[in-house]
Amino acid sequence: MSAVAEAPVAATADTRKAGDWLLVAAAILLCVWVLLPIYLLIVNALSSPEEVTAFPKRFFPSFDIGSLSFFINFAGVASALWNSVLVATLTMILSIGFGAPAGYALSRFDFPGKGTFRFLVLMTRAFPLPLLALPLAVMFIRTGLDDTALGLALVHTTLALPFAVLITFSLFSGIPVELEEAAWTLGCTRWQAFRKVILPLALPGIAASAVFAFTISWNEVFAAAVLTIENRTLTAFLLQSLGESPLYLKFAGGAALVVPALIFIFAVRKYLFAMWGIANR
Amino acid sequence: MAEIAIKGVAKRFGGFTALHQVDLSIADQEFMVLLGASGCGKTTLLRIVAGLETPSQGEVWIGGRRVDHLPPRDRGIAMVFQNYAVFPHLTVFENIAFGLRMKKLPQQEVERRVNRTAELMHIEQLLKRYSGQLSGGQRQRVAVARALAMEPDVILMDEPLSNLDALLRLEMRAELKGVLAASKTTTIYVTHDQVEAMSLADRIAVMHQGRIVQAASPVEVYRNPAARFVGSFIGNPPMNFLPASKAANGSWSVAGLTLPGPKSDRQKIEFAIRPEDVEAGDKGLQATVRVIEPLGPHTLVTCDVEGGLFRAVLDSGAAVAVGDRLRLAPKPDRIRWFDPETTNAL
What we know:
The structure holds two protein chains of two kinds.
Chain A: H1 2-45, H2 49-53, H3 66-73, H4 77-108, H5 114-123, H6 129-143, H7 149-173, H8 177-185, H9 190-219, H10 222-227, H11 234-241, H12 247-267, H13 269-275
Chain B: E1 4-13, E2 16-26, E3 31-35, H1 42-50, E4 57-62, E5 65-66, E6 77-80, H2 92-102, H3 107-120, H4 136-149, E7 154-158, H5 166-183, E8 186-191, H6 194-200, E9 203-208, E10 211-216, H7 218-223, H8 228-233, E11 240-248, E12 251-254, E13 257-260, E14 268-273, E15 278-294, E16 298-305, E17 308-315, E18 325-330, E19 336-338
Parallel strand pairs in B: 3-8, 3-9, 6-7, 7-8
Antiparallel strand pairs in B: 1-2, 1-4, 4-5, 9-10, 11-12, 11-14, 12-13, 14-19, 15-16, 15-18, 16-17
């Protein structure tokens, strides 16, 4: 009797154990998939130019800043870096400027077509950028927006805006509407209630959303490469000079792009999880 | 002077009618409780008075001034919310001072009023804390203090005690009654808890399906329900109802008993009696005992009368056993009659 009862229990335990192993293996695989390229990038960026081309590779970097300093002093890098920061900052301002009010409206008001609007916000990500780039380039040349920071920032804003809307939407939805109503009954106009109660509570999240918009622009390469010629951003600049530049320069450039983006995303990870409805931890 | 007049207020949400043409007037300094089950429209009515909801039609007057087109800040009201709505980014002091600062009162006056209301609500020692460091009961006190500090004409309360545990609720209930009576404001208080309503109210407005069924003093609502719903909703255990058929003009036969009653054209009406208004004796309604629940001061006996449930509250000394056949005599002056079609009292 007891043997019969124990057999399925043991089988369940085995299955669970196998499941655990599978989970661990998958987690390790994913970590290697993401971390290995970053590791190689950093090791090479922090090695001297000679070590980068040498073989066998060193496991630990020599913390030689030769590659990095060469990269910084490379002709055009400084201005490309400045362009990247400029475009990303403009993108950040534009996408929060438009995205936060849209997110607030979505969370607080019921209006006809609300569901459609949310859907369309996401739909903007369904069109591949290469498809839009050519007509955009033609239009930008006609209006004189081509090869300007503002023009590129506008394109990047269309990429970042859906995320800004969704993040701020979940952010405002997380703040009880009663807090706002209490402020109204205590003498505030709608705007005063927003400024004195909602904004202080939402500010960390809005900052996170802004950083995310910045990162999207910072990482974007296709539109930057097509729409700018003289005023290239760092990504476009690296793409252009990739063919002719030495290996250590590529590594240093890659690290210069990846490291800030990684730090930014890490800083705002809590709010990105919230955007997709995963518990805020 | 802040009497409130609600005139023909209706509210529709799309195809759903939350309020049907409600009329209610509340005297200056009166404590009015809106009582009803969830979804009866009581919170909607309160929010319309507060200005957080716009009525589909009708007028709201506060202190002789029509306010239904005014934003909440211009109505002379303060509101206490069910979930307290204490601002988490401000200290208790700044929470209570919030409305006073919006009025641009001088700092001295702000401090005086905050300290006075904090003392009144016994939260002087919490003034430097944030909402996250407070218990539910303390947050409730802050919310009430914040409303009182405004010295409003009208205080609106939306189920303020429903998130507290039973013991704390009892304590806060008594305290609220004292504080609000002393503040001399007109109060509208929404609750689904009939005990809370009975103990706090000067007058209770019982709401059902978007209508005010009866607005009267607690004892009146309990003793003389205007409609069947009021009798069945108020009182624990609720009123008993039995079918009555015409015996003669002004005389009705109920469960084998012939009782004098109202004159009516109908052949069948409803007889109603509160469980504590019957006495076991030799004459009366024929009842078979089903369940006995001793409650200490008295015993709740659930019986079968004419195939329906009938509850009687008997003296705890009464010797009854399950299966016993009892005669339950209704006290003549406590018998109520209802029209089965309109459900109104006869």
